[in-house]
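Support reply, case 0932

Customer input (verbatim):
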Amino acid sequence: MERTLKYKRILLKLSGESLGGADGLGIHPEQAEQVAKIIAEVRQQKVDVAMVIGAGNLWRGRTGIQRGMDRATADYMGMLATVMNALALMDAMERMGMYIRVQSAVQMQAVAEPYIRRRAIRHLEKGRVVIFGGGTGNPFFSTDTAAALRAMEIGADVLIKATKVDGVYDSDPIRNPDAVRFERLTHMETINRRLQVMDSTALSLCMDNNLPILVLNMWQPGSLLKAVYGEKVGTLVCSE
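Our regenerated output:
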């Protein structure tokens, strides 16, 4: 029996730490290659894939802010770091035979295309993976919010947040062995319970535009593939 895709176009949100070493810091080529293999597996199913990656492996703005750094300056530094991560991912995926385009909300034409919504959609239609760097291009907005915004702009069916845990729990499962995992939540429940799925701006944006969020452990073999076919994996955050 032929399987049917539930999600034909996804936006995958990765943390910067996904490219880091054991301490989550730096850019480790072998980590980028691991991510690339997972994406290649999904692309083989003819799923349109767009990506947003954070910058926590290279720069954490709150560290600078705590030392008195201007918030906007700290955020712009983070945006630049996301482009570095995007280029590392691009290189790893291209070496696996995929076609990649990096678009940046902060213009740097020597290394990335400027973000243009219609061009991004056209790339996806042609089977290219699009990596969005530079956040939203504005300070005071997280890469979570950038992921939610770009997902809606490109008409993604779902925003998939890749984490190191297999869903959303009522408390930290690493610290609390009795933590309870949710299979399904509404956007409003997630906001009211202050569950750290995404920041409140990103969650509100998804809620207002009826965009589902799927939180899963991408490093569990086959989990992302199961997700695009609608199999039970992770925690689904949706309107109902």
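We compared this against your earlier run and they match. Two observations from our side: The longest helix spans residues 71-94. Residues 41 and 225 are 7 Å apart (CA to CA). Please reopen the case if you see a mismatch on your end.
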